[in-house]
Amino acid sequence: MTMSREEKRSDPATRLQEDLADRIVALARADGVTPGQRLYEQPLAQRLGVSRSPVRAALDALAARGIVIRRPQRGVELVALPEAAATNGADAAAGEDLLVLIARDRDRSLLEDTVSETELMQRYGVARPVVRATLDRLADLDMVQRKPGYGWRFLTSWSAEIRRDSYRYRMIVEPAAILEPEFRLAPEWAAEMRRQHQRILAAPWEETSSLAFFEINAAFHEGIAEASGNRFLLEAIRRQNRMRRFSVYNWKHGIERVHDNHVEHMGILDSLEDGDVQLAALLMRRHLERASRLKPSFAHD
C-alpha cells in the first residue's frame, strides 16, 4: 500500500535528516530569519551542498518539531527558532575549523587517501563527535566515503592541471547554460543571492569565512545552471563544485577577491534580470577567465 506524504512525515527522521535540519536552523539563525519569513528549498540545498530531496525531508522533520510550517500555495515558513545551545555552537565552530585544517593538509599531501576517526582525533586534538560529524558532512558532499568495516577514503583530488582543465571546461559550459532556450531566472532566487553576497561582503573576514564564501559561490553557479532548464548542465556544475571544495576550503587570503567576486556576480545578475542573456554569458566567461588567472590560493570561483 502506498503511503501518503503526511504518513511518511510521521516516520522517525534519519540521522542525515536531523543533521540537515540542525544545519538549516543554524543557517536561519545566522541569516537573521524571523518567524513568518519563508525558507526556500533550492537555495538551502545549494548552500548545504545536497539535492532538494534531503532538504525537503529535513524541513518535514522541522515541521514535526514545530519549527516550520508548510502553508498551501506559500511554501515553508519559519514558526520559531529554538535557543542555540552553547555546546552545540562550540562543536559547530570546531567542525568548521576541522574542515579548513583537513582541506589544508590534503592540499599539502599531509593526509593519506585513507584515514581513521582515531587518527584525525589525535592529529587535530578534537573529540570523536566533532570528527564524525565533519566526516558525515564531507560524505554528504561526496568528498569522502566510509570504507567497509573501518576508516574513511577521500574521493576528491586537485592539482594545477585539474584546476586548469576545470576552468576551461566551465568556460564552455556555464555561458552555454545561460544561452539555453529554456533559461528562466527565478526572481526570488536572484533576490536571495543578492542578500547572501551582501552578507558575506559586510561580515568580518575570518579564517573559516572561506567555507561560507565558497558555498555562496557554488550556490550562485549551480543556480545559474539550474535556471538553464537542462539537468545535465546542472549536474556538470555540481560535479565541478564537489571537486573544487577541498582546494577552496583552504583559501584564506585576498579579501579583495571577495569584493571583485561580488561585483562580477552582480553584473551577471543585472544582465540576466534585464533580459540580456548574450551579455550575461559574456560576463560569465570573463568572470571565469579572471578567476583562472589568479594564483590557486586566491582563486575562489
UniProtKB/TrEMBL annotation:
Q: What is this protein called?
A: DNA-binding GntR family transcriptional regulator
Q: Which PROSITE patterns match?
A: HTH_GNTR (PS50949)
Organism encoding this protein: Inquilinus ginsengisoli
PANTHER family in UniProt: TRANSCRIPTIONAL REGULATOR, GNTR FAMILY (PTHR43537), TRANSCRIPTIONAL REGULATORY PROTEIN (PTHR43537:SF49)
User: SUPFAM superfamilies per the record?
Assistant: GntR ligand-binding domain-like, Winged helix' DNA-binding domain
Q: Which SMART domains match?
A: FCD (SM00895), HTH_GNTR (SM00345)
Q: Does the keyword NAD apply?
A: no
**Any idea which UniProt keywords this protein has?**
DNA-binding, Transcription, Transcription regulation
Instruction: Domain (HTH gntR-type): give its ranges.
Output: 14-81
